[in-house]
Structure prediction request, 400 residues.
Amino acid sequence: MNKNIKIYIAVLVFILALILLSDHNNPKPIDWRPTYSVNDKIPYGLFVFDKEINGFFKNHKVERISTLTPYEFLDSKYDENPLLKNYTIKGNFITISEANTIDEQSIKEIFYFVSHGNNAFLSMRTFPQYLLDSLKVEVKSDFQYNGTTSVWTTNKSVKTKKYNFQQQVEDYFSKIDTLNTTVLGYQGTKNQKHINYIKVPYRRGHFYLHTQPVAFTNFNLLKADHYQYAENVLSYLPEGAIFWYTKGQNGESISDSPLRYILSQPALKWAWYIFLIGMLIFIIFNAKRKQRIVPILKPLPNLTVDFTKTIGNLYYQEGDHTNIIDKKIIYFLEKIRTEYLIDTTKLDDDFIKKLHYKTGKSITDIQELVFLINEHRNSYHGSLEEDLIRINDAIEKILH
Prediction:
């Protein structure tokens, strides 16, 4: 190897080692994305809450809904028995996320679940519009330049201490149904105070809506005594089993495909796959066995007829009417044999009838032509031009 090349390689290795060494000593940048994923240990993940949820709900069963939508989960728990027509489970449905991750059909199913005496706790900054409209609630966002928001609950039986959260966007309930809605918590700055936690009755159950999901993230649960605020918020929920919806918060995305339900059912999924495989096999075999296009071959021209026409024209120019008539008759009979498959040996009544039936021409015209042909053949004197014209006109009537 060339000495200069070795030097260049050594320099590149040395520079690469310096880059790696300097990067190794630098602290890893913090990921501040609000993922709200139960698997993320970053500030705005829910890893700590996932590990400590049993401590927040002591003596209560906690079931995670991580593979189904709320509709699929709750609908499977509904007993269609006419004597019962109720859910086989009782308790609180909860979800914590940055923005709405629940489809409209699932929201409607949650309403139905709550109407049967259950409860739903939703902590998020962006609520489903269907839910807001149904509960007559509006949410507003205000940008805060100081980056600090105080939060507290209204229940005096628990701690009403204020906790300072660091954030830049303040989401709160700007409009509520004051006759039916109970305010459970506030947030604000030195000069402002807004509602961030409410309880809304719906038939036999209640909705608990909270606009500060950041309270349940790793950052706040591990910071000072902020975990107490999360405890205070959750303490409002009635006793009962906890059904925590985490689908879409484990790093996966919820499919919007119209085939989502089919692919979620084993029988339908395999039927769909078998159909696709069958169609693929059909296309492959059909493409192989399909006959190639047969080219259209034009029939060979009748050179005998063309030759006869040419000779006839030649005789006409020479004034030999007899030969021209003979060639016209030959041409006519050849055409009759070729196109109508009629024997032209004898030009009698049987020939006239067959030609009439196959051509549809007037039997009188055919009789006249046969008479002229026979008369010409039996004649011993030369033909005149008038005879040629008569026979030619008679032939034209039959052939055209």
In short: The chain has three domains: 47-254, 258-290, 303-399. Residues 174 and 213 are 18 Å apart (CA to CA). The mean pLDDT is 84.
